[in-house]
Protein 1
Amino acid sequence: MSRPILFACPADIELAADPICPDWVIDGQPRARSRRLAESADGTSSVMAWSCSAGRFNWQYDVDETVHIISGEVFVTDHKGQTRRLGSGDMAFFPAGSRSTWYVPVEVRKLAVCRHSMPRLFGTLLRVWNKVAHRLSGYSVIFVEPESDLAPQPEQQAEPRVAPEHITAR
């Protein structure tokens, strides 16, 4: 059965409030907003549009996250204290379990592809399954199930993210 193809313009999509955990905020009053654009049928992957106003905060990655900066800039400091600027058009990968400090001088907007990690054995089995399914059907197995409506939604107040105990504001 064929699934619909999703088209979106993440730079223009209306986002809803998605507060950063107050314990993670180091400086300023960063105001984050986000919107899930798509999710895989098995729930292991999603695509998000996200923005944040100026501020400095810690971030913990519970899933693998690949980001593509759409507009603005951010300075990301890793666990070794190395800082890297990401601006419009730049991309970065944050593996699950990593953490960083984000300094956002002016509003930043990104597209994020988030994926739950799975044990290597399961990943291998999934690739074998996809190859077999492809050969039998002549089509690739696609695990994307987009939301049906990407029209702007009214603002919704989301619950703040919860800070892990091992990350504290400086």
Note: The chain is about 10% helix and 40% strand.
Protein 2
Amino acid sequence: MATKREAYLSLSAMLRAREPRLLNGERAQRMLDAASFEEAAKLLTDCGYGDMSQMNANEIEAALTQRRSQILEELDRLLPDKAIADLFRMKYDTHNAKVLLKAEAMGTEGGALYSRSGRIPPEKLTAAYNEGRYSELPELFGKALEEAKNTLARTANPQLSDFILDRALYQEMLAAAETVGNPFLTGYVRLQIDSSNLKSLVRTMRMRKDADFLREVLIPGGSVDVDRLSAAGDAEGISALFAHSPLEQAAARGAEALSGGGMTAFERACDNAVNGYLRQAKLVSYGPEAPVAYVAAVENEITAVRMILTGRLAGIAPDTIRERLRELYA
């Protein structure tokens, strides 16, 4: 049986060999500049995708979902630390929990809205929820789902339930990262928490919501303490909190958004800061860094492909799509 070191050496080499086929900025620009949707879709075959040039929006979504599922299933088999694959699956469990809660509130079924990329099959999640068998679910997630259900029943406010599930998601992700014991992975999760909190802080200030609302949406566990975020006060305070950090430029964009600027450039800067962090993995020869960066890169790629293809299919101007695209890993 291979040691963990040997497993990471082999896996890292395999993923490094795949990285050149990832969608990069140049390929994305060619897709945007293509004369038609069909030509844009055909360019993706260079990245290992099947021909999607004759697909509609639903078929494109199904193809992208299948690609993500295949990669996660492969890494489930190959990763020495299963917690890494689980870390990337957790957000889909949270998505399914939100669908479940909203479906119950509206008296409908979640149906096709459920994702199969999570740790828990939607059928098992639905049964546990309906029968109150939360102990059958991962501990933090199960407790959060029960609390979210009770909160929704008490307040009829789905947003409050979403806040509960989001906090639990990042708690689970951070716990999984700490289980692996890799500083790069832990830093990645903490940066995601910081990015989420920065977005929440700017949105809350723009909406002129009170301190109680802000405390509901902020997530503990980032590099900037929740109490310091709550006391930021204004644009200058936000900039000071994130000075000399990966989110420094994003915070400056957030300050502009508070002065009447648009949110698109700000949110893009937040996401680009996280993507920029991932590129540090290229400097590490082997270890958890390579699969973490690769899975995150694939997820970012899928988001970009979806945005470009569905946008081109709908006739959205390439420049409009371009300004919303995030930086890519490759």
Note: DSSP finds 16 helices and no strands in the chain.
